[in-house]
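Q: Hi! First time doing this. I have a protein sequence and I read that you can turn it into a structure. Is that right? Here it is:
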Amino acid sequence: MKQSLISIILSTYNWSKYIKESIESVLTQTYSNFEFIIINDCSTDNVEQIILDYSEKDNRIIYVKNEKNLKLTASLNKWLELAKWEYIARIDDDDLWVKNKLEKQVNFMNDNPEYWLCATSFQIIDKEEIKNIQINTNNNIIKKDILRQNKIWHSTVMYKRIINNELVQYDTNWNLVEDYELWLRIWLTEKLHILPFILTKYRLNNWLSINNKLKQLKLSISVIKKYKNYYDNFYISLIFRKILYYIIFITLKLNIYKQISYLYRKLF
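A: Yes, that's right. Below is the predicted 3D structure, encoded as C-alpha cells:
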C-alpha cells in the first residue's frame, strides 16, 4: 500500500469538554502516517494544557496558538498553507473517528486518483440518542440533492490539498457554511465520493447561539442561490430551506426548539 502522508487539522475554541476524546480518536488510528495540527483559537479555558500534555507524548502533534481569535474559516486557511502533506483530513473538537477511518479513506483515494474528496457515512451521538446516517454512495443521487441537504459533513472528509497546482482554500465570506460552499465550488470541476461505512461520530451539541443558527440557515440559502445554475432541484431546495428557516425561527421564539429538533431527528 502506498504510504500517503496526511495533514489532520483540528481547530478549537473553549471546548475542553470533549477535545480529549477527539484527540484520542485521531492518535489511535490504524493508519498512523500523519501530522496532526491542533489550532487553539485563543481559548480561555484549559484547552491549551490538554493539548500540550498530548503533544509531549506524541511528536505527530503540532500545536499552534493564534495570536487573536480568527474564527474557524480563517484558522483553517492559515494552517492549510502550512500543512505539509498530500491529503487534508478535518475533525471538529467534539467529534470522533472510528479507528480505521483514515485507512479506508487513504485506500480509496490511492485507488481512485480521479477523486478530489472522500467522505464517510456517520453516526450522530448526543445525550439522548445514537443515530446512524448511512449515505447513498451513488454520486449522481448525492449531487442531485446537494442543494437541498449537505450530506458531506466536515469531520468526515479527506481531500487533496492541491488542485491544478493551486492550494485549496475556504472562502472566509461564508463562515458557518464554509465547508458547504467549498464542496459546491469544487464539485463543479472535480469528483467527490462518500464511503458507505460509518467511520465518523458526529456529536450533536448546541454550541451555536440562536442568532448563529439562524445566520447559518440564511447563509445556506445564499450559498445555494450562488450555485443555482450548476446543480439540480434549486427551487425545491430553496422552498425546503426557507420552510426550515421559519420553522426554526418560530420554535426558537416559542422556546420549544429543543423539543421540535429532537422529534425531527427521531422521525428523519
